[in-house]
Design a protein that fits this description.
Elements (H helix, E strand, L loop, with lengths): L19 H30 L7 H9 L8 H35 L12 H16 L4 H23 L7 H24 L2 H10 L11 H19 L1 H7 L3 H6 L4 H23 L5 H13 L3 H25 L8 H17 L2 H5 L15 H6 L11 E6 L2 E6 H23 L7 H8 L5 H36 L11 H16 L7 H17 L7 H24 L2 H11 L8 H28 L3 H6 L4 H23 L5 H13 L6 H21 L8 H18 L8
Antiparallel strand pairs: 1-2
Helix pairs in contact: 1-3, 1-13, 3-8, 3-11, 3-12, 3-13, 4-5, 4-6, 4-7, 5-6, 5-11, 6-29, 8-11, 12-13, 12-14, 13-14, 14-22, 17-19, 17-28, 18-19, 19-24, 19-26, 19-27, 19-28, 20-21, 20-22, 20-26, 21-22, 21-26, 22-23, 24-26, 27-28, 28-29
Length: about 725
């Protein structure tokens, strides 16, 4: 993933007149600020005037101004004083906080796609709320507030400790640590939820984010000092952070300390986001949207960005809250869903504008891979180690085959691991069945119950896991190779969320669950929208990524609405599947995917030779006889189909598409695309994770996606923040 450099505000020497362009820019910022202030005031007035209680704008105005004895009316005091006024002020404060936090994160990471969930704050807050509900009986909004704030602060503190190990935290280390820890916390949260229907029932509404629970000023007053401290720190750190955008060396030359600046920014983001999540629940996408729009208006001036981002966040959240009250009367829609539905198209429109092109945010930077890693390896001449050292020519008559020793050995080792994983999965379980009885049951002999258990339930589930894991591993391999980025997965194009939403919608419309074909259709629809809107899969840089994020937000909003509208039993079952589960999966869903793999895998093997060349730049690949656009399109379609088939089987299993190519690449070496190895690793990971989920808890089952998520966070840290990567991130 490329990053956009955020430049500091220009310093005008004393005694010189500001350039005309600079004056014009200042006027544009002032005009935009005035318009935003007016919009926020209008939306605030609407928020005070709209809602239950049959209290109109005139009554609200009388109450606010204290006219005609309005404040003596108990009805007006309840509706306006205890409900609408605190709710409006909370929306303004939380929106401004999330917008400011998003802008700070985008500046410190030099990435316009950064948002407030990157530091693990939302995941920590969610875990805190679930712990409070499950173990300490928290059931009120104020109880959620304390646990959410504590969990958010703890998560952010851990991220800072991890990111600043071994030489200080770079922007990449901060992002990776937050993503990894957030994934682990999210997995632990899911473990607690799937085994308690009561906990899930309370959590599924809180996690949507809503201001409906704001009554009185108690909650806002409790966290107002925290929000105020966050705003003050954000304004004080703006100038040093602008200098940091020039690079660490230049910032040090100007007298700043980059490590301290990043820590202070993380503290400000933590204070603002933790207080916001504690007040209204996790509202994602708002920080990304507000920071992105502010940058589009102000350019590189960070102080102006912070002010406008705060105003945009306040206006968007207040307006979304007003819409949430009226779009589905007499019920309220989740405010986070409203933000996604209306914010995503706005974000897409902004990223397609000429303004973004002039800011250099639609073309990727040159791929400067880490020294000593795969990117450096592919720049070396593609000479083999003496042809006889690392390669072996196998001849049979007139046919010859070049076999790479290291890749072949790695494939044999992975195949052996996969066989062991299958044997372990067939043997392990809640029933006390020995290894000998298991083998007998596999071949249809022995006790009838053993045969039924192994052949009907375990083997069908294993085959489904093998198919899904192989599809995910290959999809991840193709995506990472195309993006030249070890963090790239099909999720970047909204594949997982699109496939998940499609499967849930098919279940809602048909009344039955298990339509595996809906996954590939949803994935394909998501990618078609992303590629059409972004202008293609070519070198579009942030345009594809931003549209992909917007598509994911829209599909995730659809999923949340579906889950919140269903009964507890139905929603609980669907939530388990959306976490990634093989429970109940058998040959009926595995066979169609195996047929798909039989068609797609040979195609992937054919294009693998071109992928080796495509890891260079496009001009080099074209000079070697490879059509980059055609290969990129074929590989992307293959990745989408494979990921969609996998979601259709077991839901969105996390980290398998990310981890499989990394593990296979380390085993096979950096000069080859590990197509076969990624499939073997993916299949083994899914089968082993499913086995762990079946036996970890006595009498309960942990979905395979939750197991991979819990273990995937530490794996991501080990791979990307370990000793070998310490000098690269």
């Amino acid at each position: 993933m490329t990053v956009s450099q955020v430049g500091p505000p220009e310093v005008q020497p004393a005694g010189q007149q500001a350039p005309a362009g600079r004056v014009h820019g200042n006027r544009a910022v002032l005009t935009a600020s005035a318009a935003l202030v007016l919009a926020v005031l209008v939306l605030s007035a609407l928020s005070l005037s709209v809602g239950a209680g049959e209290v109109g704008a005139g009554d609200v105005l009388d109450y606010v101004l204290g006219r005609h004895g309005a404040r003596d009316s108990s009805r007006l005091s309840l509706v306006v004083g205890d409900l609408r006024l605190p709710r409006t002020l909370t929306a303004l404060a939380v929106g401004a906080a999330l917008g400011t936090a998003g802008c700070l994160l985008q500046a410190v990471t030099r990435n316009p796609l950064a948002e407030t969930g990157l530091l693990g704050v939302n995941a920590g807050a969610s875990l805190g709320v679930v712990v409070g509900i499950a173990f300490l009986g928290a059931h009120s909004g104020y109880g959620y507030l304390l646990w959410a704030f504590g969990g958010a602060v703890l998560a952010s503190a851990l991220v800072l400790l991890i990111a600043n190990r071994r030489g200080g935290g770079s922007p990449m280390r901060l992002v990776l640590a937050g993503s990894a820890l957030g994934a682990t916390f999210g997995g632990i949260t899911s473990v607690l939820i799937v085994n308690s229907a009561e906990t899930y029932d309370r959590f599924r509404f809180w996690v949507l984010g809503s201001l409906a629970g704001v009554e009185g000023f108690t909650k806002l007053t409790s966290l107002a000092p925290v929000l105020a401290a966050g705003f003050v720190v954000a304004l004080l750190i703006a100038r040093p952070l602008s200098a940091l955008a020039l690079g660490d060396d230049l910032a040090k030359g100007l007298g700043h300390r980059p490590g301290v600046i990043r820590v202070v920014v993380a503290v400000a983001v933590t204070l603002l986001t933790a207080a916001s999540v504690a007040l209204v629940g996790p509202i994602s996408f708002l920080g990304l949207l507000a920071g992105f729009l502010a940058r589009a208006v102000t350019g590189p001036r960070l102080t102006a960005q912070l002010v406008l981002a705060g105003l945009i966040g306040a206006g968007v959240l207040t307006g979304s809250d007003v819409l949430a009250r009226v779009v589905s009367r007499p019920f309220e829609a989740p405010v986070s869903v409203i933000i996604a539905l209306f914010g995503a198209p706005v974000l897409i429109g902004i990223v397609r504008s000429r303004r973004m092109a002039s800011m250099g945010m639609t073309d990727p930077a040159a791929d400067e891979g880490p020294k000593g890693g795969r990117a450096a390896a592919v720049r070396r001449p593609l000479t083999r180690k003496g042809e006889g050292g690392d390669s072996l020519v196998v001849r049979t008559g007139s046919l010859s085959l070049l076999v790479h020793r290291r890749a072949a050995v790695a494939s044999f080792v992975l195949a052996a691991v996969l066989v062991g994983a299958v044997v372990l999965s067939a043997y392990a379980g809640q029933s006390e069945m020995g290894l000998g009885r298991t083998f007998s049951a596999v071949f249809g002999s022995g006790d009838r119950f053993d045969v039924l258990l192994v052949q009907k339930f375990r083997l069908g589930r294993i085959v489904a896991g093998l198919a899904a894991g192989a599809a995910l591993g290959l999809a991840g391999c193709l995506t990472q190779t195309l993006a030249r980025n070890r963090l790239a997965t099909p999720e970047l194009l909204g594949v997982n969320d699109g496939a998940t939403a499609a499967v849930l919608l098919s279940a809602t419309l048909s009344g039955t669950f298990g339509a595996w074909w809906a996954g590939p259709l949803g994935a394909l629809a998501a990618v078609l929208v992303v590629t059409t809107v972004s202008g293609g899969l070519g070198q579009r840089g942030y345009r594809v990524l931003v549209v992909g994020l917007a598509m994911s937000a829209l599909a995730s909003a659809v999923t949340q609405v579906v889950l919140s509208r269903r009964s507890l039993n139905s929603a609980g079952s669907l939530y388990v599947w959306t976490s990634g589960s093989l429970n109940g999966r058998s040959y009926s869903v595995a066979v169609p995917v195996l047929i798909g793999l039989a068609v797609l895998v040979p195609l992937a093997l054919v294009v693998a030779r071109h992928l080796n060349v495509l890891r260079f730049d496009d001009s080099t690949a074209a000079s070697l006889g490879v059509a980059p656009g055609r290969v990129r399109l074929v590989c992307m379609l293959l990745a989408v189909g494979l990921a969609g088939l996998a979601v259709g089987i077991c839901g969105p299993v996390g980290f398998v598409a990310l981890a499989s190519p990394v593990i296979a690449g380390r085993l096979a070496g950096p000069l080859r695309v590990p197509v076969l190895g990624s499939m073997l690793v993916g299949a083994a990971l899914v089968v082993l994770a499913d086995t762990v989920g079946r036996v970890a808890l006595d009498g309960a089952e942990i979905p395979v996606g939750i197991v991979t998520t819990v273990l995937g966070g530490p794996f991501l840290l080990w791979v990307l923040l370990g000793r070998s990567a310490a000098t690269r991130v």
